[in-house]
Amino acid sequence: MKAFYTVFVLLIGFLLAIQGSINTQLTTFLKHPIQGALVNFMVGFICLLALNLVFRTQIPDWGHVKTAPWYLLAGGMLGAIFVSSVIFFIPKIGVSTVLAASIAGQLIAASVIDHFGFFGLNVHQISAGRIAGILLLISGIFLIQKY
């Protein structure tokens, strides 16, 4: 099952390359990359609203939301920063470099989160293999930029 999930997430990663590319093109019709990100999140909001209707979920109880630690609400802000940055940097350094660098950054942060079990997650000790994988990806970024 783990392999199936991994392949599924790989396909989602494929969609991220498409998303960044089309958001960048959308910005050519707008005045600023931030506007492209705003439109992206508005369409995403409509999609999530429709999914909530299809799956018949309830509107979040804002009383419960207000009791969550502040940092748990930062996901939307982090997503906005990511989408806006992708739109801004793709024309400057290309889709491959943007995504490879963002994945390398994600892996570095994920390794630290896993190692220490931040955010209440299970601990997964960092290993020489994980470090080697990250270093290979960083090497790949330089190869992508050069060729």
**Largest sheet data:** none
Helix and strand run: HHHHHH
Task: Evaluate the radius of gyration.
Answer: 18 Å
Distance between the termini: 36 Å
Which whole number gives the mean pLDDT?
94
User: Tell me, what's the shape?
Assistant: globular
Oligomer category:
single chain
- Count the strands? 0
The helix tally amounts to: 6
User: Which class do the helix and strand fractions yield?
Assistant: mainly alpha
Low-confidence stretches: none
Strand residue content = under 5%
The amount of helix comes to over 70%
Q: Any overview of this molecule?
A:
The chain is mostly helical. Helices cover 78% and strands 0% of the residues. It has helices at 2-27, 33-54, 62-67, 75-93, 95-116, 128-146. The longest helix has 26 residues, at 2-27.
Question: TL;DR?
Answer:
Helix content is 78%, strand content 0%. The protein has 147 residues and is mainly α.
Helix and strand layout, with pairings?
Blueprint: H1 2-27, H2 33-54, H3 62-67, H4 75-93, H5 95-116, H6 128-146
Helix pairs in contact: 1-2, 1-4, 2-4, 4-5, 5-6
Describe the structure using short key phrases.
147 residues; 78% helix; globular; mainly alpha
